[in-house]
Amino acid sequence: AGSSTEVNLMVEGSDIPVVLSDSVDLPSVLDEVYLVGAQTKLEVATSFTITTLRSDVGSSVIVTEGATLTIAGVYDIHAGAKCDFVVEAGSTLRLLDIDGGHPWYISGNEPTIDLYGTLNTSRLMIGQRGKLQLHARSHLDVKDLYLQDSAVVFASSGSVVGLQQFKLRTLSIGPEARLEFDIENVDIDVENLIMKWDSHLTTSSSLKY
Predict the structure, then answer these.
(1) What is the reported pLDDT for 16?
(2) What DSSP state is assigned to residue 195?
(3) Is the pLDDT of residue 209 over 80?
(4) CB within 8 A of 40, min separation 6: which ones?
(5) Residue 102 and residue 30: Cα distance in Å, rounded?
(6) pTM for this entry
(7) What is the pLDDT of residue 3?
(8) Which of 59, 96, 106, 112 is least surrounded by CB atoms within 10 angstroms?
(9) Over the stretch 107-159, which tens digit does the pLDDT of each residue have?
(10) SS3 164
């Protein structure tokens, strides 16, 4: 039997994105992608799978309209993904389950996820002082959502969290973290709700549990 060759990609540069598209001579599955240095940007404009993502603080991944990016794991599950993510409308970011039941940890220095399209994963953890912005018509397809200290999730009107408008298995809001809705008449269906000291769950209108 022939042996397969690993394909690793190291991206290092300025704030001009490196674009992965159909015109790039790369296989659709990359064994490891390493985003080196702050300001480094990787733009995914077609369907790609990354087996292992390694990223430095301040780097970012942009999934453009019509593209699907699947990431199977990170270089260090305890350090998590240190990059920011932008998921444009009409695109999908799939974060596959990590061995051992660990949540996908978005770490870094005040990490951000700008979600206009769909983010699909079972368990997601937003790191300290991180921000997850759910824009109108976005879908956070997740079962368990964890917010670390001072993290913020802002859900705009028209966004969907969980299987329905807001249906989760676990919602954990850490110290001084906030989950804010700009949505009227929110119905929250959460099996396990954990709120730490000085955490906030707010809405622009009435709130139903």
Answers:
(1) 86
(2) E
(3) no
(4) 11, 12, 13, 18, 56, 58, 59, 60
(5) 22
(6) 0.92
(7) 47
(8) 96
(9) 988 999 999 999 999 999 999 999 999 999 999 999 999 999 999 999 998 89
(10) coil
**Two structure tokens written together for 27:** 């296989």
The single residue listed with the structure tokens 């540069």 is: 13
Q: Considering only CA atoms, which of 62, 68, 67, 20 is closest in space to residue 41?
A: 62
Q: Can you give the three-state secondary structure of 34-69, one letter per residue?
A: EEECCCCEEEECCCEEEEEEEECCCCEEEECCCCEE
Pairwise CA distance, residues 165 & 137, whole Å: 11
Q: Which of 19-23, 108-112, 142-146, 185-189 has the lowest mean pLDDT?
A: 185-189
The DSSP call for residue 74 is B
CA distance 184 to 203: 7
The torsion of the CA quartet 201, 181, 164, 86, rounded to 10 degrees, works out to: -110
